[in-house]
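In response to reviewer comment 3 from the previous cycle, which asked for concrete evidence that the modeling workflow produces usable outputs, we include below a single protein chain processed end to end. The sequence was submitted unchanged, and the resulting structure tokens are shown without manual editing.
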Amino acid sequence: MSDSVTFVVVKATFVLLLVASALTWALVIVKALQNGRIARQNRLFARVFGKVSRLPAVEQLTKHAGPMARVALAGVEAWGDGSEPIRNDRAAFDVRKDVLERSLRQQIQREKHTVESALPVLASIGATAPFVGLFGTVLGIIHALQRISGAGSASLEVVAGPIGEALVATAIGIAVAVPAVLAYNYFVRRLKGLTSDLEDFANTLVNTAIVSALVDKASDSERPSNPAIAIRSRAASA
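The workflow returned the following structure tokens.
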């Protein structure tokens, strides 16, 4: 490899590492803003609907944003697809419950995919940046040895400068990789916490739907089906 080609490749390695560093910090800022917005939206939604004993209406849920609100909306819409009252048909009840649970799982997966976007880029930068820096160092040392051989001298003054410049690439690679790895681990941990919260909320939503259905069923069973019977019963009690 000629001296000029080696020099160009080493400089290209430095440029690549600087671009990776800029991309890392841009992704860190974007993901931090995204996580902060999601946390605020979920707190607001939990404060409004955290103590609701029955399923909220679709019109109420559409006024809120955030993963938790979208999971609730998917669940309410799935549960409302079988809008006919549940009497004594256990099979119909089980079908509606399965549809609700499947819709909640699908929405949680969609929210997870949205939040984990760009995390593979951080992981790739963290894993490859040290090797890119090492590659630049190796080529830099080759370039330095070519310069030393061309100078015809192997004194410490001649060797130290080019070798030191070559080692800068490894240092830059490590400096790029460390923030990327730390940011990736942090956002993965936040993603796991969000997924756990959504799963807990989905379980609560399923329980609320079941309790609401049982309450409605009990109310229907206590309500007379024939209005004439109700009138006669009130007249007899009078």
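Residues 3-237 form one domain. We consider this sufficient to address the reviewer's concern, and the full set will be provided in the supplementary archive.
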